[in-house]
Amino acid sequence: MAVTTDLIKKLREMTSAGMMDCKKALEATNGDIDEAVVWLRENGLAKAAKKADRVAAEGVSLAVSNGKRAIIIEVNSETDFVSKNEKFMSLIEEISNTILNSNVNTLEDALNLRLKNGLTINEACIEATATIGEKISLRRLGCVEGSNLAVYNHSNKRISVLINFEGPISQDDAYNICMHVAAMSPKYVENSEVPQDFKDAEMHIIKETTDVTGKPENVAQNILNGKLNKKLAEITLLEQSYVIDEKQTVGNFLKNNKSKVLNMFRFEVGEGIEKVVSDFAAEVAAQLKGN
């Protein structure tokens, strides 16, 4: 069967694959569109496998809630251009809704959930990798159930917050605290959550950079402890000055509202991933030398 433009267009609409890939698939299957779909999937999966080891440090974070359960996810891509891709954003929306309406609480279980098209989330990410041309992966997940849940998604789609509150805090105040967490990036809710290893490492740095020569031991120790407490206040939600009212801490605000934070999640796209910094000029020069 002749490979016509209309046939290529039809296959592209069915699969979202590129025009040249559709042409190759139809030529390889003598114009049989059903076999061409299979050919594209098989070759696409092979291409996706080659991309599996690439660093995907861009993408989108998203937090959603149905009032009883809330989830927060990070889905990664290789470039930030993909976040403007309609197919990618539709996939993220379906992934988030599927996880939200399930009872799974771990990333491993979430990857095995099935979407409406019958593919698991893991399979859908592999298929998206083949179609979009970049490594796509569901990197992490946070889930919580409660009666007073609040979520915030920043407009850049790179920062999301999910907090589970206890107490009569209003929805507006809960949302504002989520915005505070997005802006101030606390790592822990309270001091008791900060690992002792972190405290010891910070105290070591403080001792190395603070001159307490000639001061009485108790005075010197108070100075060192004061600096440590200041550092801990920077990364602890309850000790931070509340951005809405800097005259009080978040902890005092919550106490005045007879409420407290039970769980806090803050996802920022790419945090903790070592990005590959490429030298474009050097790459081009190397290719020219190779030729």
Automatic annotation (TrEMBL):
- Please state every residue range assigned to the domain named Translation elongation factor EFTs/EF1B dimerisation: 70-271
Q: Provide a GO CC annotation, any one.
A: cytoplasm
Q: Where is this region: Involved in Mg(2+) ion dislocation from EF-Tu?
A: 79-82
| Alphabetized GO MF terms | translation elongation factor activity
Which UniProt keywords are listed?
Answer: Cytoplasm, Elongation factor, Protein biosynthesis
Subcellular location per UniProt equals: Cytoplasm
Q: Short name of one Pfam family for this protein?
A: EF_TS
CDD domains, from UniProt?
UBA_EF-Ts
Work out whether the entry's keyword set contains Membrane: no
Q: Which Gene3D superfamilies does the UniProt record give?
A: 1.10.286.20, DNA helicase RuvA subunit, C-terminal domain, Elongation factor Ts, dimerisation domain
Give the residues annotated as coiled coil: none
Q: Which residue positions does the secretion signal occupy?
A: none
InterPro entries from the xrefs? EF-Ts_dimer_sf, Transl_elong_EFTs/EF1B, Transl_elong_EFTs/EF1B_dimer, Transl_elong_Ts_CS, UBA-like_sf
For this chain, the family text in UniProt reads: Belongs to the EF-Ts family.
Functionally, this protein is described as follows: Associates with the EF-Tu.GDP complex and induces the exchange of GDP to GTP. It remains bound to the aminoacyl-tRNA.EF-Tu.GTP complex up to the GTP hydrolysis stage on the ribosome.
Query: Could you identify this protein by its name?
Result: Elongation factor Ts
User: From which source organism is this entry?
Assistant: Spiroplasma corruscae
The record's gene field reads tsf
